[in-house]
Amino acid sequence: TFAGSGLLSVNPADTGQSWGAASENTDYSSKLSLLGTGYLYSSDTGGGADTSASYNSDDASVTVHVLGTISGSPEVGVDLRVTNSSVNYANGYMGRFVYGTGWQVYRVTTNTYVLLSGVTGTLADADVIRFTASGTGATITLVVYQNGTPVLTTTDTAAGRWTAIGRAGMHLYNPGGLSTTNFQIDKFIAV
Predict the structure, then answer these.
(1) What is the pLDDT of residue 93?
(2) Strand 75-83 to 49-56 pairing
(3) What b/e string do you get for 152-168 counting C-beta neighbours within 10 Å, with b at 16 or more?
(4) Long-range CB contacts (< 8 A, 24+ apart) of 123-128?
C-alpha cells in the first residue's frame, strides 16, 4: 500500500519502478522493483536505490519489512529536501538505518555524503522509520524516529546546509539485489 499524491510509474531509465511523474524519473536514480506482494525491494547491486516524490515535504516515513537471512549491510531510510540531479543521489538529507551500524543522518551534495550524526540501534520487521527536517535559517534540525520514538537528533549549521524545502523520498540498498532477503518497503508516506 502506498500513500501520497501519486502512483508508482515505470522508470524509463531501468526496469524498476519510480515514485513520481514519469517525466521526472530520469532526474533521480531509481532501481526499486515492485513485487507481487506490493513491497518494494532494491534491484540495484551497487550503492543503493533512491526515489523521490513529485511533491515537497519535510516529514516522511516508510514501513520496513525484514525478510529472510540478513546478508551484507543493507540500508533503508527516508530522503528529505531532495532537488533534481542527474547523478546517483541528488542534493538533500538522508535519515537511514544500516544493518550492523545503526541510525545515521547525512547531508548529500552532488553525490558527496557528509555524516552529520550516527548512533547504534536495531530494526525489526514492520518498524516505521520517520524522518523530519525543520528550520530554514542558520540551523536545520533533523530527527529520525523509530515507531514514533526519536532515536537520533542532530543539527546542521554548515554553510552547505539545505535550507529550502524539497521533495521527500525513500532510500533502499539490498546487497545482491535479491527480492527474498534483507529490507523491503511496504508503505511510504509524506505529509
Answers:
(1) 94
(2) unpaired
(3) bebbbeeeebbeeebbb
(4) 123/64, 123/66, 123/76, 123/97, 123/99, 123/183, 124/66, 125/64, 125/65, 125/66, 126/63, 126/64, 126/65, 126/186, 127/63, 127/64, 128/61, 128/62, 128/63, 128/64
Closest by Cα among 87, 47, 72, 185 to 129: 185
Q: What is the CA radius of gyration of the chain?
A: 15
The count of C-alpha atoms lying within 13 angstroms of the C-alpha of 171, restricted to the half-sphere facing its C-beta, is 29
Please say whether the beta carbons of 146 and 164 come within 8 A: no
Residue 69 CA: distances (Å) to CA of 57, 61, 160? 34, 24, 39
Report whether 11 contacts 158 (CB < 8 A). no
- Look at residue 81 and tell me whether its pLDDT is greater than 80: yes
**Residue 145: its H or E element:** strand 140-146
**Portion of the chain with pLDDT greater than 70, in percent:** 68
Q: Supply the pLDDT for residue 37.
A: 57
| pTM of the predicted structure, to 2 decimals | 0.82
pLDDT at 136: 92
pLDDT in tens, 27-64: 344 556 556 556 666 655 555 666 666 668 899 999 99
Amino acid at 66: V
